[in-house]
Amino acid sequence: MSKRARENLTRVYHPTNEKPSAYTTSDLQEKEDREIWDDFKEGNESAFIFIYEKHFKVLFNYGLNFTQDRDLVLDGLQDMFIALREKRATVTPTDAIKPLLFKIFRRRINHYLRKQSKTQQIRTQTFNYQFEFSLSAEQHIINRQIDDEQIELLNRAILSLTNTEREAIFHYYFENHTYQQIADIMGYTQVKTARSLVYKALASLRKIIEPEQKYLFLLLF
Amino acid sequence: MIKKEYKHYQLEDFLTDDEFKRWALDRDRHLDLFWTKWLEAHPEKKSMVLKAREILLKLQFNHYKVEDTEQENVLGQVLKAHKSPRFEAGTSARRKPDFHHFIKWGIRIAASIFLLVLINHLGKLNGDRKPPAQVIQQVKTITRTLPKGQKLSMVLPDGSRVYLNAESSITFPERFEGESRTVELKGEAYFDVAKNEHKPFIVRAGQIAAIVVGTSFNINSFPEQDEISVSLVSGKVSVFPKSDFQDNAGEVILTEGEKVTIDKISSETVKSSFDAAVEVGWKDGLLVFEGDDYKQVMAKLERWFGVAFIANNKPLGHWEIKGRFDNLSLEEVLDNLKYTNKIDYRIDNKTVYLNF
Q1: How many CA atoms lie within 13 A of A7 on its CB side?
Q2: B82/chain A closest Cα distance in angstroms
Q3: Predicted confidence band at B337 (pLDDT cuts at 50, 70, 90)?
């Protein structure tokens, strides 16, 4: 019996007519972000807790890309969720909860980092290297196009990208945010700014493994 | 697909293209067809396309982990609206999570919204008969009922987590007001109770009641069984065989690892230890048989998978099943039993026919 067939065997559950204000996890997984967010805004505690539990870990991971200070990241999460809960009625409605939380969290993390660097004599290393990523040297791809030497060159080149460039790449490839969402999160008014950030960073990497082609020959007369 | 000039693309154009990214990372079969055909038509681009794809597949980012306990600790602070000291200035006073330190949880309700305590549960508990305070606001009660074959995990208004087993139901108020948090259970559930020393958590199941303060435990009170059992995984639980708490009659206090079974007819209690996998494994999809006879096995499988079982005959001689099935499908379990020569089976639409 297929999984679908097995699921169809269970009797259909008819909820009571009143709208429950405590949700089951299975209920909420079927709801669209917009509905969950609206419910949260209306004061539904279960929706709030669901949003918290669904996004806590990815937000934590995001925060630790800005700084290795775990306590700072946890404080940021704590204060952010408290603020969201307090001001839930006036918080902006949204169709996508994750990028909105990323946007709000980014602002708060950077605020705390700036505050911290003001109060500390020694500038922490937190600002120096953020959003670390690299190309894996593992050999599990058949028909390889890039050799080990090129991988090494690329990984070294990635180190010299700016934090902002690396963050944009993180959003696009790891968190799968759209360019529109990236622009929103990182505070750019134009979507194309976000795209060109990723584009220029990768173009500079490409030049490492492909010396300049003879573009002169493609000129149109 | 928007008309793009892929044939003029450079490496970074492919890398930053939404459709290309989706093809390279998600293995979309629809896109696979497009790209295979396109590469056949533009073989000069093959090397670049494969290179781009390889780069995307090789990208690796850091993955920073956080403990579930840290997540729960922060949630506790959030629900109490305790801002971090960093909010004002200075450094964090955050402690490492300490299991022996009871963190006070609770939902602080703005005084301007709720006026009076509704019903004095604690009064009933102690046997005092105080007149109930005036009901200013009607609090809705919610019941979630599960049929056979379904389980669910849900969160109660105080942040406590409940795993509800098949053929079970739980009733609770929309908001926990008053001096305690009370829920009613039929069937079986595993509770992970949010700590609140000022508001004990009470579960009424049939004739018994269990009072907890920050605890993880399992209550089993299926109607066809002769006993109700409460198994304590962590924390502390007081079990009252008679849920009207008269004279604290027969109160049984459980410590971690202890289980009590209450006979429904005599209200006699028996304490014992328990195997966590057997008692509580169901919530993680672990189906356990400990020497179950054929009727018990059929009942368990019926409840677990929500299918009907019909026995064409009875087993001869001694027949029992001992085993643990970790998140297996119905067929996998049945095949397993068939392999050990315990049964033969046939599935017909919504029914399983068994031959022993």
Answers
A1: 3
A2: 8
A3: confident
